[in-house]
UniProtKB/TrEMBL annotation:
Transmembrane segments: none annotated. Pfam families: DUF134. InterPro entries: UPF0251, WH-like_DNA-bd_sf. The keyword Isomerase does not apply. Keywords: DNA-binding. The keyword Oxidoreductase does not apply. This is UPF0251 protein Metho_2123. It comes from Methanomethylovorans hollandica (strain DSM 15978 / NBRC 107637 / DMS1). One of its GO terms (molecular function) is DNA binding. Belongs to the UPF0251 family. It comes from the Archaea.
Length: 111
């Protein structure tokens, strides 16, 4: 199924996690439903909830609009809250991002 609207702009990400799974203690991963959080969603959480940036500051750092940032942040918060309150595992992987220092410095669309 094709997505509607404009293509998603790659987000700039400073840090990629070394640990990509979190799960409830005492339950084997194979027995758990896994909630997937994209790398850029984790970056949104990190910038606002850990670094204390405003959404405006964080969106500029990631090279995206404030609305796109807000959508990533809300999605990440929903997924983490769902996993924690329902005993699900969390996997951090995938997404549409570039690491800081790569050639692409955000989304630049030609007319």
């Amino acid at each position: 199924m094709k997505e509607r609207g404009r293509p998603k702009c790659p987000r700039r990400v400073e840090l990629t996690p070394e640990v990509i799974y979190f799960k409830p203690r005492g339950v084997p991963l194979r027995e758990l439903e896994v909630v997937c959080i994209a790398i850029e969603e984790l970056e949104a959480l990190r910038l606002v909830d850990l670094e204390g940036l405003t959404q405006e500051e964080a969106s500029l750092k990631m090279g995206i609009s404030r609305r796109a940032f807000w959508e990533d942040l809300q999605s990440a918060r929903r997924k983490v809250t769902f996993a924690l309150t329902n005993g699900k595992a969390i996997e951090i992987s995938g997404g549409d991002y570039v690491t800081v220092g790569e050639e692409n410095k955000g989304c630049r669309r030609s007319a």
